[in-house]
């Protein structure tokens, strides 16, 4: 039995993305509509996701493009405001992700009471955002300094838009990450948001670290979720819940309900 049952309430859990619009300091922030509009749109998406039956929600500054690896204070402050205003309406366990800054994600988790964080905690990469370095030892010590040791850490070991500088296979990465860092989960991704996670990669990771929770992190859809969840312990789902299945759009409640109805049927089959 994994921690998913205790924290999220079910195995084969679906964590739904609540993508926040551009925030103050971001290039595409709408100064005229302001933060009130950001909160209003986040509320709309959160409601659609929860009414559709998702197991959990992950708040992310997905539209803070292009991303920073050393996120500015104003971004964390804005995300804290959004989650704070929505707190009384959040009915499912939630996590946070301040792209792409692990320590700032933990700061936000500590401030909001988030149950988990998804981030790039380990590795050195050549990426669209330049050379991307991490310091997992310092990050975990920061977590404990904050008193956030109970926050579950979801390690993304296949970062989007990036590649390990060293030539390492996925099995080696997964095995050494688990041995050295004791992650609560590993996330396996496609190239970008909405890109299907390679099922063979998922299988390789799960086989090499069978005792660790493994998530399919991108591209899980109605036509592939059974294959993905037959291997993975859960999935992080964003784009497929959007209007017309497009990353830029807001959440479509009907798509969420259709997806979650089928996921629940699948989980019932596994329980028989």
UniProtKB/TrEMBL annotation:
Q: Which domain of life is it from?
A: Bacteria
Q: Which residues form a coiled coil?
A: none
SUPFAM superfamilies linked to this entry: Ribulose-phoshate binding barrel (SSF51366)
**InterPro entries in the cross-refs:** BtpA, RibuloseP-bd_barrel
Family per similarity comment: Belongs to the BtpA family.
Q: What is this protein called?
A: Sgc region protein SgcQ
Could you tell me which species this protein originates from? Seinonella peptonophila
